[in-house]
Amino acid sequence: METKQAKMCGEEKIHAINNILLEWWRESGRQLPWRKNRSLYGTVLSECMLQQTRVSVAIPYFLRWMERFPSFTATAEAPEEEILLLWSGLGYYSRARNFQKLCQKIVKMEQFPETPREWQQLPGIGPYSAAAIASIGQNYDAIALDGNVLRILIRLHADWLPRETFRDKNLAAKNLQLLIEVMKIPGRCGAIGEALMDFGTEICTPRGPKCNSCPIEKFCSLKKLNLSAATIPHFSKATRPPVHVHRLWCRGIGGIWLVRSQRSRLRDFYELPVLSEKFLSLPVIHTFRRTICGICYVEHVHDFDGSAALSPFFPTETDENAQIIAVEDLNKIPISGPHRQCIGKILAEKEK
Ligand code: SF4
Questions:
Q1: Number of domains, the chain
Q2: Counting Cβ atoms within 10 Å, is residue 317 exposed (0-12), middle (13-18) or buried (19+)?
Q3: Which atom in ligand 1 lies closest to the alpha carbon of residue 215?
């Protein structure tokens, strides 16, 4: 394809990089469960699970899910409580609900969506997932572009990209658009996308890229420009101060006091109750951090280990959502991942 960018960075270079990357991927690509016995359903599920989640964390969830709900229909018809329980620990629970809604829509369709644009009409599917699903699952000619791919392309083509693109993800994506068009090999875009994902995880990593074992090192611009891969690119993030939340640990009343969350992202998940500000003098027994939508929450758990005179400590949530759950029943209800971990740690500590 004759484009300004293709001329600037060299079509031949782009095609040579593609070929070497595909060769490298054939030999060294990751063996992942959703790449074995590939199916469109498995591709969609894996893409939904991998939004904001590392591959190693998603694998056991993917395997359990495929065993319990192996098709769009099985997920569409599942009770929501079971969906949430199975997703419990993966975080970002709106993804679980959206995935079920997506399955419910798919089973009513006469045919599957076929283009990234059509996939993006479904719940929980953004531009990256849509391009990944269509290219990997349906051989559509699109290359899914995320931070990983941007990093590799910026490093390879730093010699002609404006310096601002090293710090600004959106600008980088815009300036690389035409290059990405040139990268497309009809019928091989899914493989190129997966090769780039693996290459960005195994070789061209964010902080310590393994340049000495990089199969495309001779094409990389960083050495030529004497620039450090450890700092390029360095996309700036807006930093916000952490939000402090206080929770109540109340045991000794036949179980642990939990509250069914009504917040949209965590709706129907159980968590430790929020403690009213009046009682912040209760001792803190555990502190943990969690990040939701880029905001860091520091959660402090205060101890009230008694059964009498509960009313002064009653949490701020409404009574109907507060429940006392026996320890042996904790695995039967959906609990957000950070709270399940926190409860496990406190129980282990108290039973020492
Ligand atoms: S040489 Fe290093 S920075 Fe360049 S593409 Fe290879 S791993 Fe990435």
A1: 2
A2: middle
A3: 6
Mutate to test the pocket of ligand 1, among 156, 201, 211 (most ligand atoms within 8 A of CB): 211
Q: Is residue 249 part of a domain?
A: yes
**Are 67 and 154 contained in the same domain?**
yes
Which residues have CB under 8 Å from 200's CB, separation 6+? Answer: 148, 149, 151, 152
Select which of 2, 23, 27, 47 is catalytic: 47
CATH code, 249: 3.90.79.10
Cis peptide before 233 (omega within 30 of 0): yes
Q: Which domain holds residue 291?
A: 243-350
Task: Classify residue 234: in a domain, yes or no.
Answer: no
Same domain for 252 and 216?
A: no
Model pLDDT, residue 165: 86
Note if 317 is an active site residue: no
- Which ligand 1 atom sits closest to the C-alpha of 214? 6
**CA atoms of 153 and 161, how far apart (whole Å):** 10
Give the model confidence (pLDDT) of 178-212 as tens digits.
899 999 999 999 999 999 999 999 999 998 899 99
Cα(204) to ligand 1 centroid in Å equals 5
